[in-house]
Amino acid sequence: ISRADSQCLACGGPALDLESQRELLLDLAKRSILDKLHLSQRPTLSRPVSRAVLRNALQCLHGPPQGALLETDRTQEYEIISFAETGLSNINQTRLDFHFSPERTAGGMEIQQASLMFFVQLLPNTTWTLKVRVLVLDPQDTNLTLITQHLLEVDASGWHQLFLGPEAQDACNQGHLILELVPEGQVAQKSVILDGAAHRPFMTAQVRVGSKHQVHRR
Amino acid sequence: GIECQGGSRMCCRQEFFVDFREIGWHDWIIQPEGYTMNFCTGQCPLPVAGMPGIAASFHTAVLSLLKANSAAGPAGGGSCCVPTARRPLSLLYYDRDSNIVKADIPDMVVEACGCS
């Protein structure tokens, strides 16, 4: 709504009234954030995350050191925390499903490093060998394909971290990563991998915008 | 750069805070609660357009002068008020899979304005 009695300082045209100008600026801010995050619209939350889980996960985030300034020519980087769905688990095996938004993975994002964080509760003085199988879903025939596996010695209760290799990173890039944690050699009374509200397994990934997004200024 | 104050019509930086709660984005953006976007506004009349201090850069000042001398130019001297320094913004937010994403986005906060 232009105000006939005054002039825009920048372009010399009729000035907007303050409320319209504020609306316009907020709209610009929204569009700028969505553009820079490569999102077509603001995300709608399907599965809220509990504060306890959020707090645990945030302690694992590795941001730039406080006060460090980003060099303007650095490519945009992300850190992602993805919480596992543990639907298809039982006492002897915990299955973790991680999903990454197609628009993020299709946009040429490259996962630089990924690690799994999970909480284990053991009886005192016991040691477990844990096999971690990395699987991908074959889009054609919906079968699971084992791409690699890790063996882990766990001898204390608490949070444990496993760095995932390039195979898992490739699976993340395809949008869906499946991990199976199978205790070896011992009969469990109950699952040693906890996934209650405050102990939900999650994955952290450091992501860089891939070359497709690079705009080179000549 | 110059901060916009009172009735000044000169090229300056206008402070502007975007409150995520006000725009209804506080559910998916975890931190921060808002950010100072700021913007540039004001005129770049001829004498000012030529001053390196307020120009976007020394080269811009020289170009503005060349342009101004060779063309009549609109009332504003043919030079615009633009950001000369910007700062990144760190965002922590949920994506549509309820993953938590931490992103450092360059050039989101206008720190200073000048004539170009």
How would you explain this protein's 3D organization?
The complex is a heterodimer of chains A (218) and B (116). Chain A is of the alpha+beta class. Chain A has helices at residues 18-36, 51-58, 102-106, 166-173; strands spanning 2-7, 14-16, 77-83, 94-99, 109-120, 128-137, 144-154, 158-164, 176-184, 193-194, 202-209. Chain A has 4 helices and 11 strands. Residues 63-73 of chain A have low confidence and may be disordered. Chain B is elongated. In chain B, a hairpin with a 5-residue loop joins strand 6 (81-94) and strand 7. In chain B, the strands form 3 sheets. A 3-stranded antiparallel sheet of chain B has the order 3-6-7, with no helix packed on it. In chain B, strands 1-5 form a two-stranded antiparallel ribbon. Classes of the chains: A alpha+beta (218), B mainly beta (116). At the A-B interface, helix 1, helix 2 and strand 3 of A face strand 5, strand 6 and strand 7 of B. Strand 3 of chain A pairs antiparallel with strand 7 of chain B, so a sheet runs across the interface.
Q: Oligomeric state of the chains?
A: heterodimer
General form of chain B: elongated
Per DSSP, what share of the residues of chain B sits in E-state strands of 2 or more residues?
Answer: 35-45%
What is the first-to-last residue Cα distance of chain A?
40 Å
Instruction: Tally the beta strands of chain B.
Output: 7
Total DSSP helices of chain A: 4
Overall pLDDT metric of chain B: 82
Sheet with most strands: strand arrangement of chain B: 3-6-7
Largest sheet of chain A: 5 strands, antiparallel
Give the amount of beta strand of chain A, in percent.
Answer: 35-45%
Helix- and strand-based class of chain A? alpha+beta
Mean pLDDT of chain A: 77
Taking Cα atoms only, what radius of gyration of chain B do you get, to the nearest Å? 18 Å
Strand tally of chain A: 11
Structural class from helices and strands of chain B? mainly beta
The total count of helices of chain B amounts to 2
For the termini of chain B, the CA-CA separation is 13 Å
Helix content of chain B: 10-25%
Low-confidence regions of chain B: 72-77
The main sheet of chain B comes to: 3 strands, antiparallel
